[in-house]
Amino acid sequence: MKLPKTLGSCVDLLYKMREERLAAQKVVDERKAQEHALKDHILTNLNSQGGTTFGGKIATAHVSKRTEGTVHDWDDFFNWVAKTDSWDMVQKRINNAAYRERLENDVDVPGVEAVEVTSINLTKK
Known about the structure:
The chain is mainly alpha-helical. It is built from four helices and two strands, in the order H-H-E-E-H-H. It has two domains: 64 residues; 39 residues, no CATH class.
């Protein structure tokens, strides 16, 4: 891609590219919703057809199940994690909004370093 010579032209090109991406994303989101509706239809009608593998002329689908956890009591869960040293049960990432709030309130969070992330925000004129 050849970049424009002036920053103003770069901003305009960035805006146009973002608008094109957002329009394409809208199409993708609509398609994803249609796919979700089809998946729901297949899963809803499994019982009446029986079986776990279904095929059409160009594709075959195998329906499988897996067990996942949903935490209903965070205190109980975290107490158990700490007591049993089961930290592999927890995803290791920070909630940046909560971290920024603590920084604004002059709270020191041990083990966390502030990193400044630069971004560009675009608005239409």
